[in-house]
Amino acid sequence: MNPLFLDALKCKNDSRPPVWLMRQAGRYMPEYRALRAKYSFLEMCHNPELIAEVTQLPLHSFGMDAAILFSDILVIPEALGVGLRFDEGKGPIIERPISTLADIQTLPSPSIPESLKYVADGIKLVKPQLNVPLIGFCGAPFTVASYMIEGKSSRDLRKTKQLMVRDPKAFSLLLDKIADCSIDYLNMQIDAGVDALQIFDSWAYFLSHSHFREFSLAYLNKILKGLKADIPVILFCRGSSIFAPQLAEISPAGISLDWQSDIVKMREQIPSHIALQGNLDPDILYGSHETIRKEVKTILNGMKDDRGFIFNLGHGMIPDIPCDAVRVLVETIKNSR
Amino acid sequence: MNPLFLDALKCKNDSRPPVWLMRQAGRYMPEYRALRAKYSFLEMCHNPELIAEVTQLPLHSFGMDAAILFSDILVIPEALGVGLRFDEGKGPIIERPISTLADIQTLPSPSIPESLKYVADGIKLVKPQLNVPLIGFCGAPFTVASYMIEGKSSRDLRKTKQLMVRDPKAFSLLLDKIADCSIDYLNMQIDAGVDALQIFDSWAYFLSHSHFREFSLAYLNKILKGLKADIPVILFCRGSSIFAPQLAEISPAGISLDWQSDIVKMREQIPSHIALQGNLDPDILYGSHETIRKEVKTILNGMKDDRGFIFNLGHGMIPDIPCDAVRVLVETIKNSR
What we know:
The structure is a homodimer. In chain A, α8 runs parallel beside α11, α11 (168-192) runs parallel beside α12 (209-226) and α15 runs parallel beside α16 (323-334). Chain A has helices at residues 4-9, 30-38, 41-46, 48-62, 75-79, 101-105, 112-115, 117-126, 141-150, 158-166, 168-192, 209-226, 240-249, 263-267, 289-302, 323-334; strands spanning 67-68, 84-87, 91-94, 134-139, 196-201, 233-237, 254-256, 275-280, 309-313. By secondary structure, chain A is an alpha/beta fold. A seven-stranded parallel β-sheet of chain A has the order 1-4-5-6-7-8-9. In chain A, strands 2-3 form a two-stranded antiparallel ribbon.
């Protein structure tokens, strides 16, 4: 198996840096769009064969150094019975959003290995076909809770923050329930065979530093402590340009940086035994090949002696990025030594 | 005149910290809503008598230590002829958004003191009626350009960043034009009598650190250099929790912090001759009075020996905040020594 990604996660990589891209299996790929013409997004998430197929698509086309499980962070709310659908062009919809303490108290306690068995099945199917490590994942409790409260994508997380500020105990109860499910979910993924995990706190940047500590970091820590095996975990949050030093306090194997900060300067604040992943602005991929090469090389040069560096974007792939841009990005990294 | 705000901007305040709130004259006030029932938002922005009246509303109700001119950052695009309207509940609409180099090259070069004379007239009317300093303002070129390109509020600034990445020269030309207009506009405000200025880069947090330097900071610096009088200028950006050290490089009188970072820790990175303004999470005002007092006091205690500290929110007032919450906030600060 290609060793670069796991070596870098151990901060022991002496070769070129590994590369994978958040949302690397997605709508920007014609092969993915062809499948989406036949199946809904949720049908694809629920079907082990399709999970296995989609997970591998970008590896065949671009040759990344790690695969990430094809799934969605909202399968946990779905298992919690709040109703999930994806409306074309609108993103996720939670059909029965959470708004009160009573809503939270009456959430069921599902058996995650039963409810989300299709994910484990997908992992077991794809794993033997891979020659790179497989990354499993889940959403962070704060981000998953936000979706459950807002009911859809939001530009300000107003309802979430109102509940958080007005009834912090109710909000904490919800976070705790999601964290418990997430522990079961990630342990199931470990049993099924993933090589590493990433936890996505996509909406953490709406929080102040003290609320981040109380309502995000504490539950990330709970999840890390609840994992049964010593498996490397990467923590991603939008807002990591501010919160990365806090993330480092709970000693994940790696931290995935969003694109606002200078990853070279961030390394000065993050201990050298924690891998740093990132952090190209995804919008750079709209630029010319020359622009892409220049910006990728800036990051590569800055991190060139770092044994714990993993190249990635600062956020997920945008659906209308040309495939050629991704090819140029990956080639620039592979040709870097 | 109440000296607290200008003393703090000089980093020479030995009394309690001054307080004002971004968007302190706004929809959360019943007196403001009563006026908005009679006039459109743009009618209010265009009318010197209403500018003078609205500017004073929060001072009468809450007793802030500074007034901020009632206006909008989009009067500059309006003067540039791209068409501006505000649709109820939808926010600003630019009727003829910019998308090409040709669009930018054919923008007119308006005489700002003529086009925006109503703002100067409003300042001249209100200034003699105030017993606190008056803050003038404009939008930062990056944020104003983003509105002109997106045509409306945007959750990702996709079109803006595409133009920036694909045609940086065209984008720079647009920023340069807006900066030139902004210099004329702020100089007009100085002549009319404002005591300080704030420049709002509300959308800077979409930028990477290097793009921030190239496409935001450079034009903020151009504006600072173009002002005719030695007047204190505060720079605000969303993203200042990351970019504040860059903002400090161009030596503004003050930096206004968004709410993500710890202002006490940020002070360690910002020289003591630059005032720091901020940085309460605006959503805290949804909390109980006890919560508001506790969070305000946390900031006050952290900054208690800082002679250059100005209390503010980390972003603008939210329209549905109860007035009592603002009263509790202001009283907590006024009773702090």
